[in-house]
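Question thread 4412

I'm putting together a teaching handout and wanted feedback from people who do this every day. The idea is simple: show students a protein as raw sequence, then show them the C-alpha cells that encode its fold, then repeat with a second protein so they can compare. Below is the first pair exactly as I plan to print it.
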Amino acid sequence: MSSTHLQEHLDPSDFAMIRDVLRAGGFRGVEATANSDAKKAASVFLKTEFRNGKRTRETLLLALQSKRVDLHKGLPVAISRKSEAIDRWQDEGGQ
C-alpha cells in the first residue's frame, strides 16, 4: 500500500482555485464558449488532477490546456489518462 495519502476532500480555497482555472481556460463565466457538457467534463477533470497531486494554479491550467480540444469535442479524457498511466508504467520498467 502506498504511503502517499491523496486528499479526498477539497476545501473552499481549492474550489476557488479550480473555478479560477476553469475561468482562465474558458470553461467558466459569462464569456465561456464551451457548452455545458464540456464545462462539466473540465470541472471533473480538474478535480481529478487536483486529487492526483497537481495542486497549483499553473499545473492545473497546463493540464486543462493539454486536454482542451478533447474536452470541447466531448471526448472522454479518462481514457486518455489511463493510456498515459500505462505509458508511464511501461517507461518505468513495467511489463
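The second pair follows. I'd like the answer to focus on this one:
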Amino acid sequence: MEYSAAFESDVGDVENAAIRLAESEADGEADPQLQSEFAAVLDHVLNTYAVDCESLTTHVEAVARIWRTRDHETTASKHVDTVHQAFMAEVCDDYDPVY
C-alpha cells in the first residue's frame, strides 16, 4: 500500500492504545475501558486502510510486549519507534525509515 501520514498517525494511535492497555495489565487485570478503546482504534485502522489484519496485530502485540518487558521507559520508547518504522517499511511500498 502507499504511505500516508494519516495511516502512520493511526498506527501510532494503535501503538499508544496497546501501550496504555499493557500498562493497565501490569496491575493485574486489564482496564475494561482501555480494552474497549484499543479495540475501537484497531477496528478503525483495519476498516480504513488496506493493511493485513495479521501483520497489524502481530506488530501491536510486539509493541505491547516491548512495553511490558521494559527496563527503562526511554529505551522502550526507542525500541517501539524502531519497530514502528520497520512495520511501516514492511507495509508501505514508499516508506523510507529513518532508523
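Top answer:
Good format. For the second protein you could add a caption like this: Residues 5-91 form one domain. Helices lie at 5-25, 32-48, 53-68, 73-91.
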